[in-house]
Design goal:
The complex is a heterodimer of chains A (372) and B (367). Chain A is of the alpha/beta class and 372 residues long. Chain A has helices at residues 2-17, 19-39, 58-69, 82-90, 104-111, 125-150, 176-207, 209-214, 220-250, 258-281, 286-302, 315-321, 325-339, 343-367, and strands at residues 47-53, 73-78, 96-100, 113-121, 161-169. In chain A, strands 2-1-3-4 form a 4-stranded mixed beta sheet, with helices on both faces. The radius of gyration of chain A is 29 Å and the shape is elongated. Chain B is an alpha/beta fold and 367 residues long. In chain B, 66% of the residues lie in helices and 10% in strands. Chain B is built from 15 helices and 5 strands. Chain B has helices spanning 2-17, 19-39, 58-69, 83-91, 104-110, 125-144, 170-191, 193-200, 203-208, 213-241, 251-275, 279-297, 309-315, 319-333, 337-361, and strands spanning 47-53, 73-78, 96-100, 113-121, 154-162. A 4-stranded mixed beta sheet of chain B has the order 2-1-3-4, sandwiched between helices. In chain B, strand 1, helix 3 and strand 2 form a beta-alpha-beta unit. The chains are: A alpha/beta (372), B alpha/beta (367). The interface between A and B is large, with 114 and 116 residues. Strand 4 of chain A pairs parallel with strand 5 of chain B.
């Protein structure tokens, strides 16, 4: 017990001695937590539309006015020909081109049907799909309007109507910050837990100070505990700071039980520290440890559902995410903070993280050799 | 010149002696392109939803079947009462609940009017919007079946999707992933180059040599430039042959601008390296410090036009953003140099800035 206390003292002193590392641990995460959620907004809005009106009829003018008034499209300009409009698309000045052919009004009146040509910049598939569907629905409304005016009392306006209303639960104002902040907090805790732990241990190997520890009566578990406990504490501090930032800067107050978050974090940090320990035992230099830890982190983060939903991934990728501890914590963090999920809802995830903790730590301890 | 060559050779040995690192340097981009190229997408497919059907009649069953049959949705469960909604949302099993009111068929036929409620779990606002949109359009299509009579005055838009007719997510994400991977690998490689010498004490020897600081820096960059060329080739080959992306523009232009981007990142790495004192800090900055901003501000994940103005301004400082535009324009839109000269100029300027500052920071004396 006394040995452990000395080791802990040594570790804490070492951590706090290097201001640049400390800056990394605290300032950078908090800074990112403050800055990054502001930019994370995938909402599709302000679709820029270029119009080519070959018809110049009252009907076509009215359609353009209708599109503009929808509040969804931003009219970037009238073009003379398709070529000119395509140039606007190439320069990203227009997302959508609407071409109204000559005789549009005449065809509509005489032949009862008329065509419009729409070209969408589809590099971003989702934006293109949504833009096109908004345009279609505006055109449908427009179509219904002119029909109603032409045949005010006709049976055509008596079609069966299924109207759809929708409401957004838990996040009424569709705030992206509410969605991103809990996720980013998990990423930061994970970085502190895995990155810094593995670096710290490998540093002792690289500088050679591990030899000095090896010749002392310090036991293997003393050494490991001495390494893990400080970073566990740091991880919990990051969580506290993160929750404070979320509250002060974004006004995000967890709907669920904060104790539940801390309990889950406590288990999660043990698992992730085990990962850091494991990385450090299989590497010799800081450079290697850094690379491997980073590589893992990158996959963990990108495959965690933080940015893109796991449901959208192909099945094999979803299977990969089962082995990603970050995924489970992000789920829990969002469930508890946003929806107020209770223990019963997160019990499965807790169990899985518990197993992660046992497997990773056992593996790490077995492969850690005091005399390497 | 001979000294210069010797220096390059020395660097070369340094890099290739550490097999593990070399393996990671070549393996990392391959893995990343493959994993992210396939897995990163915001297309919605087979999202789990629940149904709360109060009518349980023929038409409502038909509608539910249509929703289930679409590629966007899987009807995961049917709920009995409205109090179940909160439960399934909190358990996180479904993302949306569709509520069908009582007497659906009857009201539809007699009163011509029914209202369907879509309740979305908006903790993921993006997904919620997309799901509600898709469901609404399926319901819209469904009701069209009940009105097959020929309408007068029909306006039909003919919609063409440019560049990416199948609306694949890869067309937007792969160029972004290319930018991200190149940026991180290149910056990281050189970020430890100088600081390692400082840490190991061999810097003294370098400084005592007759080589000028500029030449020392260049000799450190050249081997990595070669590594970057290999990485660029593998990334492009994988994007084209595995991820099915087209190269619509000039391949030569694309490769040479990728090299330019690699040089920008390598010089950013050199700058990090000459302004830090330990490998740990250098790597933390080049990986952890660049990773999240690169993802978030380069525009492939989150549209830049949605950001508040100060953030849009800051995003201009991220080199990956410019390269992302270049790749999109040259590779997918098939545009030539005339369309991207601004981006190229910016990357040039950044490279120059990084190099000048690192030479200024490169101290001839160690404290």
């Amino acid at each position: 017990m006394k040995t452990l206390r000395f080791i802990l003292e040594k570790e804490f002193r070492q951590i706090f001695r290097d201001p640049s590392i400390l800056r990394m641990i605290f300032v950078m995460p908090i800074l990112q937590l403050i800055v990054l959620p502001i930019v994370a907004n995938y909402e599709v809005k302000n679709v820029k539309i270029a119009v080519i009106d070959h018809d110049h009829s009252p009907v076509s003018t009215r359609m353009i006015n209708k599109l503009e008034a929808g509040g969804y499209f931003q009219l970037t300009g009238y073009c003379i020909g398709y070529k000119e409009a395509l140039e606007l698309v190439e320069q990203e000045k227009a997302d959508l081109v609407l071409e109204i052919p000559t005789h549009f009004e005449r065809d509509l009146v005489k032949e009862n049907s008329a065509k419009l040509f729409v070209a969408v910049n589809a590099i971003n598939g989702v934006k293109a799909g949504l833009g096109a569907s908004y345009l279609s629905s505006l055109l449908r409304d427009y179509n219904a309007d002119i029909r109603l005016e032409t045949f005010p009392t006709s049976r055509f306006n008596q079609s069966p109507q299924i109207s759809v209303t929708s409401s957004n639960w838990y996040n009424q104002f569709m705030s992206y910050k509410l969605f991103m902040v809990p996720g980013i907090l998990v990423v930061l805790m994970t970085m502190v837990g895995s990155f810094l732990t593995s670096l710290n241990i490998v540093k002792e190997k690289e500088i050679g100070t591990i030899e000095q520890i090896n010749v002392t009566p310090i036991k293997k578990y003393h050494f490991i505990l001495g390494k893990l406990i400080p970073f566990w504490v740091l991880g919990m501090i990051v969580l506290t700071l993160g929750l404070t930032v979320a509250r002060v800067v974004y006004g995000i107050v967890p709907v669920g039980n904060i104790g539940l978050l801390y309990a889950f974090s406590a288990v999660y940090l043990i698992a992730i520290l085990g990962l850091g320990l494991l990385v450090s035992t299989i590497t010799q230099t800081q450079q290697q440890a850094m690379l491997i830890a980073f590589f893992l982190m990158m996959i963990f983060i990108m495959m965690s559902g933080l940015y893109t939903s796991i449901d959208s991934m192909p099945y094999w990728a979803q299977v990969v995410t089962w082995f990603n501890p970050v995924r489970y914590f992000i789920e829990v963090m969002r469930m508890v903070v946003i929806k107020g999920s209770t223990f019963a809802d997160i019990a499965t995830n807790l169990g899985i993280i518990f197993i992660f903790g046992i497997v990773l730590n056992t593996w790490a301890i077995i492969s850690y050799k005091k005399r390497s | 010149m001979k000294q210069f060559r010797a220096f390059i050779k020395k660097e070369w040995f340094h890099i290739f002696r550490d097999r593990k690192t070399v393996f990671i340097l070549f393996g990392m981009p391959v893995m990343q392109i493959l994993i992210f190229g396939f897995a990163l997408t915001n297309e919605v497919k087979n999202a789990n939803i629940a149904v709360l059907d109060y009518s349980k009649d023929a038409k409502s069953a038909e509608l539910i079947h249509q929703i289930d049959a679409s590629r966007y949705f899987d009807v995961y469960t049917s709920l009995k009462t409205s109090s179940d909604i909160d439960r399934v949302f909190k358990a996180g099993t479904v993302k949306m609940v569709m509520v069908i009111p009582e007497n659906f068929t009857q009201n539809l036929e007699a009163k011509n009017k029914v209202t369907i409620q879509l309740l979305a779990d908006a903790s993921d606002p993006n997904l919620a919007t997309t799901l509600v949109n898709y469901a609404s359009s399926i319901i819209n299509d469904y009701q069209k079946q009940y009105f097959t009579e020929k309408l007068p005055l029909v306006v039909t838009p003919e919609i063409r999707m440019l560049y990416n007719p199948q609306l694949k997510g890869a067309f937007n994400f792969v160029p972004g992933v290319m930018a991200m991977v190149l940026m991180l690998v290149s910056t990281m490689m050189t970020s430890i180059a100088i600081v390692r010498e400082k840490e190991l004490g061999t810097m003294e020897i370098l400084l005592a040599s007759p080589l000028k600081p500029l030449l020392i820096i260049i000799s450190k960059t050249i081997p990595y430039l070669f590594l970057s060329l290999i990485n660029i080739s593998t990334i492009l080959l994988l994007s084209v042959f595995v991820l099915d992306l087209p190269i619509n523009g000039s391949l030569f232009l694309l490769v040479s601008l990728s090299m330019l981007f690699a040089v920008t990142c390598l010089s950013l790495g050199i700058l990090i390296s000459s302004s830090t004192n330990s490998q740990q800090v250098a790597m933390l900055i080049s990986l952890m410090g660049l990773f999240l901003p690169t993802i978030m501000l380069s525009g492939f994940m989150f549209p830049i036009e949605n950001m508040p103005l100060p953030m849009q301004f800051i995003s201009n400082l991220v080199p990956a953003k410019w390269y992302f535009y270049i790749v999109k324009d040259v590779m997918i839109k098939g545009l030539g140099f005339a369309a991207i000269w601004k981006e190229v100029l910016v990357l040039f300027g950044m490279t120059l800035f990084f190099l000048v500052v690192s030479i200024k920071k490169f101290k001839l004396r160690l404290s």
